[in-house]
Amino acid sequence: MACWYAVLVGAEIAVSHRVDSVLVHGAATFRLDSEGERRAGIAIMLHLTRAATAGPSLPVTEDQLARDLRLPPAIVRGLCFRLVKRGLLSENVAGFSLRADPERMTFDTVADAIDRDPTLDRLDVQMPTDPGRLN
User: To 5 degrees, how large is the angle CA 106–CA 85–CA 61?
Assistant: First the structure.
C-alpha cells in the first residue's frame, strides 16, 4: 500500500511541475483508454465553458487544465488539439478557449470529436467496382 502511495504522490508532483510522463523503470506508465479520453475531453469542455461564462473569455492554459483535471499535461495537450481540429476549441499562444456554441453542444458531440480522427474525414476512399478484386 505504501508503494502505491509513493507513486501517486510522485504523479501529483510530476503534474504540478509539468513533467509530461511519470516514469517507472524507464517506461511511461499513464495512458487513458478510449472511455477515459472521452471523459477527459468532456471535462475539458466543461471547464472551458465555465471559464467562458464566468466573465471575459480569457484562454485557459494546458497547465491550468492539467492541474485542475489532475492529468498529465501531455494528455491534456493531445486532447485539446483533437478538439481544436474538430472546431470545438480555439488555440493561441495564451492557451485554449471555447470556439463552439455551448448551448448547441452535447456530450455526444464532444465524445465524437475525441473518438474520430479529422484526417479520416478528408480521405476520398474509392470502393472497387468489382467486389472480388481489390487492386
Answer: 85
* Position 100 confidence tier, pLDDT thresholds 50, 70, 90: confident
Structural domains present in the chain: 32-117 (1.10.10.10)
Higher pLDDT, 22 or 9: 9
Transcribe 28-62 into DSSP letters.
E-----HHHHHHHHHHHHHHHHHHHHHSS---B-H
C-alpha cell at 105: 453542444
Closest CA to 62 of 50, 78, 51: 78
- 1: DSSP letter: -
In whole angstroms, how far apart are CA 78 and each of 1, 38, 52, 72, 124?
32, 12, 21, 10, 26
Residue 125 has pLDDT above 80, yes or no: no
